[in-house]
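Supplementary Methods. Inverse-folding protocol.

Structures were first reduced to a C-alpha coordinate string of length 185. This string, shown here, constituted the complete conditioning input.
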Protein backbone atom coordinates (compact mmCIF):
# COMPACT_ATOMS: atom_id res chain seq x y z
CA UNK A 1 0.00 0.00 0.00
CA UNK A 2 1.07 3.51 -0.59
CA UNK A 3 1.71 6.00 2.19
CA UNK A 4 -0.38 8.62 0.50
CA UNK A 5 -3.71 8.94 2.27
CA UNK A 6 -6.69 7.96 0.05
CA UNK A 7 -4.48 6.32 -2.57
CA UNK A 8 -6.46 3.13 -2.26
CA UNK A 9 -9.55 4.92 -3.60
CA UNK A 10 -10.37 4.82 -7.30
CA UNK A 11 -9.85 8.10 -9.09
CA UNK A 12 -12.97 9.84 -10.52
CA UNK A 13 -11.66 9.38 -14.11
CA UNK A 14 -11.36 5.61 -13.64
CA UNK A 15 -14.78 5.48 -11.96
CA UNK A 16 -16.40 7.29 -14.93
CA UNK A 17 -14.68 4.94 -17.36
CA UNK A 18 -16.02 1.84 -15.57
CA UNK A 19 -19.53 3.41 -15.42
CA UNK A 20 -19.31 4.23 -19.12
CA UNK A 21 -18.50 0.59 -19.91
CA UNK A 22 -21.53 -0.61 -17.94
CA UNK A 23 -23.69 2.00 -19.66
CA UNK A 24 -22.51 0.74 -23.08
CA UNK A 25 -23.38 -2.84 -22.13
CA UNK A 26 -26.82 -1.78 -20.89
CA UNK A 27 -27.51 0.20 -24.10
CA UNK A 28 -26.38 -2.74 -26.24
CA UNK A 29 -28.70 -5.09 -24.33
CA UNK A 30 -31.66 -2.72 -24.70
CA UNK A 31 -30.88 -2.27 -28.41
CA UNK A 32 -30.73 -6.05 -28.90
CA UNK A 33 -34.06 -6.58 -27.15
CA UNK A 34 -35.65 -3.76 -29.18
CA UNK A 35 -34.36 -5.25 -32.44
CA UNK A 36 -35.67 -8.69 -31.46
CA UNK A 37 -39.11 -7.24 -30.68
CA UNK A 38 -39.22 -5.38 -34.02
CA UNK A 39 -38.19 -8.53 -35.92
CA UNK A 40 -40.77 -10.64 -34.06
CA UNK A 41 -43.50 -8.08 -34.80
CA UNK A 42 -42.50 -8.00 -38.48
CA UNK A 43 -42.57 -11.79 -38.79
CA UNK A 44 -45.94 -11.94 -37.02
CA UNK A 45 -47.40 -9.29 -39.31
CA UNK A 46 -46.04 -11.08 -42.39
CA UNK A 47 -47.54 -14.40 -41.26
CA UNK A 48 -50.88 -12.88 -40.22
CA UNK A 49 -51.30 -10.77 -43.41
CA UNK A 50 -54.05 -8.50 -42.10
CA UNK A 51 -54.44 -6.95 -45.56
CA UNK A 52 -55.72 -10.27 -46.96
CA UNK A 53 -59.50 -10.61 -46.98
CA UNK A 54 -60.12 -13.98 -45.33
CA UNK A 55 -63.87 -13.59 -44.97
CA UNK A 56 -66.06 -16.17 -46.73
CA UNK A 57 -67.44 -15.06 -50.09
CA UNK A 58 -69.72 -16.30 -52.85
CA UNK A 59 -67.54 -17.69 -55.63
CA UNK A 60 -68.80 -17.39 -59.19
CA UNK A 61 -67.68 -20.20 -61.50
CA UNK A 62 -68.61 -19.25 -65.07
CA UNK A 63 -68.36 -21.47 -68.08
CA UNK A 64 -69.67 -22.15 -71.55
CA UNK A 65 -70.60 -25.36 -73.27
CA UNK A 66 -71.63 -26.11 -76.82
CA UNK A 67 -75.36 -26.41 -77.31
CA UNK A 68 -75.67 -29.96 -78.57
CA UNK A 69 -79.46 -30.21 -78.60
CA UNK A 70 -80.84 -27.63 -81.00
CA UNK A 71 -84.18 -27.95 -79.27
CA UNK A 72 -82.63 -26.70 -76.01
CA UNK A 73 -82.14 -23.21 -77.45
CA UNK A 74 -85.21 -21.40 -76.33
CA UNK A 75 -86.68 -18.44 -78.13
CA UNK A 76 -85.86 -16.39 -75.04
CA UNK A 77 -82.14 -17.19 -75.46
CA UNK A 78 -82.09 -19.67 -72.58
CA UNK A 79 -80.25 -22.98 -72.76
CA UNK A 80 -79.32 -25.96 -70.60
CA UNK A 81 -75.59 -26.44 -69.89
CA UNK A 82 -74.14 -29.88 -70.70
CA UNK A 83 -73.21 -30.48 -67.04
CA UNK A 84 -76.43 -29.09 -65.52
CA UNK A 85 -76.94 -30.48 -62.03
CA UNK A 86 -73.35 -31.72 -61.75
CA UNK A 87 -71.32 -31.06 -58.62
CA UNK A 88 -68.84 -28.19 -58.53
CA UNK A 89 -66.27 -28.65 -55.75
CA UNK A 90 -63.67 -26.11 -54.66
CA UNK A 91 -60.52 -27.37 -52.91
CA UNK A 92 -57.55 -25.58 -51.36
CA UNK A 93 -54.46 -24.97 -53.51
CA UNK A 94 -53.13 -28.47 -52.80
CA UNK A 95 -56.37 -30.06 -54.02
CA UNK A 96 -56.62 -32.16 -50.87
CA UNK A 97 -59.01 -30.20 -48.61
CA UNK A 98 -62.57 -29.58 -49.78
CA UNK A 99 -63.56 -26.00 -48.94
CA UNK A 100 -67.01 -25.58 -50.51
CA UNK A 101 -69.30 -27.03 -53.16
CA UNK A 102 -72.30 -26.19 -55.28
CA UNK A 103 -74.45 -27.58 -58.06
CA UNK A 104 -73.92 -26.66 -61.70
CA UNK A 105 -76.55 -24.24 -62.94
CA UNK A 106 -79.50 -25.79 -64.79
CA UNK A 107 -80.03 -22.78 -67.04
CA UNK A 108 -77.82 -20.52 -69.06
CA UNK A 109 -78.00 -18.05 -71.88
CA UNK A 110 -77.07 -18.54 -75.50
CA UNK A 111 -74.21 -16.21 -76.37
CA UNK A 112 -74.88 -13.90 -79.36
CA UNK A 113 -72.71 -13.62 -82.49
CA UNK A 114 -70.60 -10.85 -80.91
CA UNK A 115 -68.91 -13.58 -78.83
CA UNK A 116 -66.90 -14.86 -81.80
CA UNK A 117 -65.84 -18.49 -81.33
CA UNK A 118 -68.34 -18.88 -78.48
CA UNK A 119 -71.35 -17.54 -80.39
CA UNK A 120 -74.24 -19.96 -79.92
CA UNK A 121 -72.65 -21.57 -76.85
CA UNK A 122 -74.50 -21.85 -73.54
CA UNK A 123 -73.02 -19.46 -70.95
CA UNK A 124 -73.79 -20.34 -67.32
CA UNK A 125 -72.72 -19.38 -63.83
CA UNK A 126 -72.59 -21.51 -60.68
CA UNK A 127 -72.65 -19.74 -57.33
CA UNK A 128 -70.73 -21.36 -54.49
CA UNK A 129 -71.62 -19.90 -51.11
CA UNK A 130 -69.25 -19.63 -48.13
CA UNK A 131 -65.89 -20.16 -49.81
CA UNK A 132 -63.15 -19.08 -47.35
CA UNK A 133 -61.18 -16.13 -48.68
CA UNK A 134 -57.47 -15.47 -48.52
CA UNK A 135 -56.28 -18.70 -50.15
CA UNK A 136 -54.98 -16.98 -53.31
CA UNK A 137 -55.49 -20.00 -55.55
CA UNK A 138 -57.98 -22.84 -55.47
CA UNK A 139 -58.52 -26.10 -57.31
CA UNK A 140 -61.96 -26.42 -58.92
CA UNK A 141 -63.55 -29.66 -60.09
CA UNK A 142 -66.68 -29.60 -62.23
CA UNK A 143 -68.81 -32.70 -62.68
CA UNK A 144 -66.15 -35.07 -61.36
CA UNK A 145 -63.64 -33.97 -64.01
CA UNK A 146 -60.04 -32.92 -63.58
CA UNK A 147 -58.91 -30.35 -61.01
CA UNK A 148 -58.22 -26.95 -62.52
CA UNK A 149 -56.27 -24.18 -60.77
CA UNK A 150 -58.23 -20.91 -60.49
CA UNK A 151 -57.13 -17.63 -58.91
CA UNK A 152 -59.26 -16.18 -56.11
CA UNK A 153 -59.42 -12.90 -58.00
CA UNK A 154 -61.18 -14.69 -60.87
CA UNK A 155 -63.72 -16.33 -58.54
CA UNK A 156 -64.54 -12.91 -57.08
CA UNK A 157 -65.17 -11.29 -60.49
CA UNK A 158 -68.75 -10.20 -61.23
CA UNK A 159 -70.74 -12.29 -63.72
CA UNK A 160 -70.74 -9.48 -66.32
CA UNK A 161 -66.95 -9.28 -66.22
CA UNK A 162 -66.59 -13.05 -66.62
CA UNK A 163 -69.10 -13.05 -69.49
CA UNK A 164 -67.21 -10.21 -71.18
CA UNK A 165 -63.99 -12.24 -70.88
CA UNK A 166 -65.62 -14.90 -73.09
CA UNK A 167 -65.92 -12.31 -75.88
CA UNK A 168 -62.13 -12.05 -76.24
CA UNK A 169 -61.33 -15.76 -75.96
CA UNK A 170 -60.60 -18.10 -78.85
CA UNK A 171 -61.44 -21.78 -78.97
CA UNK A 172 -58.29 -23.86 -78.47
CA UNK A 173 -57.24 -26.71 -80.74
CA UNK A 174 -58.82 -30.07 -79.91
CA UNK A 175 -55.87 -31.20 -77.75
CA UNK A 176 -55.63 -27.99 -75.69
CA UNK A 177 -57.23 -27.37 -72.26
CA UNK A 178 -60.76 -25.98 -72.02
CA UNK A 179 -61.20 -22.28 -72.90
CA UNK A 180 -60.16 -19.85 -70.20
CA UNK A 181 -58.80 -22.55 -67.94
CA UNK A 182 -55.17 -23.42 -67.29
CA UNK A 183 -53.75 -26.79 -68.23
CA UNK A 184 -55.03 -29.72 -66.17
CA UNK A 185 -52.88 -30.81 -63.26
Amino acid sequence: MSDVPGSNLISPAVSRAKGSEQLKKRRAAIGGVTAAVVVAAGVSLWAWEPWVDRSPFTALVAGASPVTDLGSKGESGECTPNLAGGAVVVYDASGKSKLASGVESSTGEVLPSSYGDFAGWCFYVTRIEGLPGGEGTYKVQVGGGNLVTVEEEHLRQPVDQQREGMRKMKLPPDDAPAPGLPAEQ
